[in-house]
């Protein structure tokens, strides 16, 4: 099995090649490992040599649905080493180990004032690219980080002793922490998290930190075993048990106070609504494709159930989320346990295939350009 490369910083003044390898999205279900130019940087920008980039479900949806034009280089859960800085960058240096957010809001518009940062037009712009239309760029050897990301806190220095793999979880942890905060959980509540992939486990583990009782549902017992390592001890075997009935049984017959749907698609929305108590909340976390879905309107009106969503990260909790990841590595919140597969960049197509077809043995999939066998 492939092993991770060193966490050592890049040597100061290392030679940057003219070309690099990248996984280029060319059409629906068509990603190819190609040789492309290393991106040039401008004033206020930095160039990062990628160590680790996680494959996110949103990357996969873009690849499989054709929602975005081609060509592009995806990948946004990125951690690596700064190898070049542009004029005017004085808060970072060559050799700094960092993770990067690909979205940062303007902080001034109506949506930012209302703290709905993901709806800010500046936030919707992608500020990291490995070439072509900016799309994250983490599935490449080098990533250019644009000036507004650098100047407004989108580049976060990784503390000594924290590996790149752990740091690459800062962005997804932020998105999960935002969702949990939106639910405003109380210690006397019961929470059901449907889906125990890496994101589902993160959501459940963060929910448990509020003191609430957390139920976890998944088809794979192997995933429940991993979840148990994060203190999640109320598993529901969705293949052999009724999720709705167990949720009611574990909440004195009421149903869960809050239900989080951590898997994509719409098929389980009705299950989530049925598992919530009257007056409860249902949060959709992975429904990122527009389209029709059947929802019982009386469940919202007469049963007073709240249907809500949470999308992407929040700059308001950026420091809290980063601290949770960095400090957690040393205090029992080791997120590298969620990584099931690591692929070198030349095997990026295989990595995407594995991530697109989850099994009991697959959790978080990482692409690491410098991975050595």
Describe this structure in words.
This protein is α/β, with parallel strands linked by helices. It folds into two domains: 19-163 and 329-367, Quinone Oxidoreductase, Chain A, domain 1 (Alpha-Beta Complex); 174-309, 3-Layer(aba) Sandwich (Rossmann fold). The chain is 26% helix and 24% strand. The chain contains 13 helices and 16 strands. The protein has helices at 57-65, 110-113, 121-124, 147-151, 164-167, 170-183, 198-208, 221-228, 243-249, 269-275, 297-301, 318-328, 348-356, and strands spanning 19-27, 30-37, 46-54, 77-85, 97-100, 128-129, 142-145, 155-157, 190-194, 213-218, 235-237, 256-261, 276-284, 306-309, 339-343, 364-367. The longest helix has 14 residues, at 170-183. It is globular and about 65 Å long. The model is unreliable at 1-6 (pLDDT under 50).
Topology:
Blueprint lengths: L18 E9 L2 E8 L8 E9 L2 H9 L11 E9 L11 E4 L9 H4 L7 H4 L3 E2 L12 E4 L1 H5 L3 E3 L6 H4 L2 H14 L6 E5 L3 H11 L4 E6 L2 H8 L6 E3 L5 H7 L6 E6 L7 H7 E9 L12 H5 L4 E4 L8 H11 L10 E5 L4 H9 L7 E4 L6
Parallel strand pairs: 9-10, 9-12, 10-11, 12-13, 13-14, 15-16
Antiparallel strand pairs: 1-2, 3-4, 3-7, 3-16, 4-5, 5-8, 6-7
Helix pairs in contact: 6-7, 6-12, 9-10
Q: Note the total helix count.
A: 13
Q: Give the second-level CATH assignment, the architecture of the largest domain.
A: Alpha-Beta Complex
Q: Which regions have little confidence, pLDDT < 50, spanning 5+ residues? A: 1-6
Considering DSSP H and I runs of 4 or more, what fraction of the residues is helical? 25-40%
Oligomer state equals: single chain
Strand portion: 15-25%
Say what the CATH topology of the largest domain is: Quinone Oxidoreductase, Chain A, domain 1
Kindly provide the name of the CATH class of the largest domain.
Answer: Alpha Beta
Shape type: globular
Give the averaged pLDDT, no decimals. Answer: 95
Structural class: alpha/beta
* Secondary structure tally: strands: 16
**The CATH homology group name of the largest domain:** Medium-chain alcohol dehydrogenases, catalytic domain
């Amino acid at each position: 099995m492939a092993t991770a490369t060193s966490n050592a910083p890049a040597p100061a003044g290392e030679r940057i090649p003219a070309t690099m390898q990248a996984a280029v999205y060319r059409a629906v279900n068509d990603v190819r490992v190609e040789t492309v130019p290393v991106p040039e940087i401008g004033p206020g920008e930095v160039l990062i040599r990628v160590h680790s980039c996680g494959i996110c479900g949103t990357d996969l949806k873009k690849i499989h649905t054709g929602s975005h034009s081609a060509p592009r280089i995806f990948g946004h859960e990125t951690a690596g080493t700064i190898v070049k800085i542009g004029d005017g960058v004085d808060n970072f240096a060559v050799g700094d180990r960092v993770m990067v957010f690909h979205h940062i809001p303007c902080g001034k518009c109506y949506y930012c004032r209302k703290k709905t940062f993901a709806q800010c037009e500046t936030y919707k712009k992608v500020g990291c690219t490995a070439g072509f239309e900016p799309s994250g760029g983490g599935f490449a050897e080098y990533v250019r980080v644009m000036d507004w990301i650098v100047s407004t806190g989108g580049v976060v220095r990784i503390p000594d002793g924290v590996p790149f793999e752990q740091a690459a979880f800062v962005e997804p942890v932020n998105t999960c922490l935002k969702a949990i905060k939106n639910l405003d959980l109380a210690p006397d509540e019961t929470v059901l998290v449907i889906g125990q992939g890496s994101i589902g486990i993160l959501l459940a583990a963060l929910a448990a930190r509020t003191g609430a009782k957390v139920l976890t549902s998944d088809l794979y017992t192997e995933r429940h075993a991993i979840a148990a390592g994060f203190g999640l001890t109320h598993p529901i075997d969705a293949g052999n048990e009724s999720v709705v009935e167990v949720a009611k049984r574990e909440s004195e017959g009421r149903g869960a106070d809050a239900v989080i749907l951590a898997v994509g698609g719409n098929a389980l929305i009705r299950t989530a609504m049925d598992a919530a108590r009257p007056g409860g909340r249902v949060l959709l976390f992975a429904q990122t494709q527009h389209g029709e879905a059947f929802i019982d309107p009386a469940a919202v009106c007469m049963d007073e159930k709240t249907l809500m969503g949470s999308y992407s990260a929040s700059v308001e909790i950026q420091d809290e989320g980063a601290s949770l990841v960095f400090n957690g590595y040393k205090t029992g919140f080791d997120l590298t346990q969620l990584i099931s597969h690591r692929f070198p960049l030349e095997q990026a197509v295989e990595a995407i295939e594995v991530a697109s077809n989850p099994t009991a043995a697959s959790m978080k999939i990482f692409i690491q350009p410098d991975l050595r066998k």
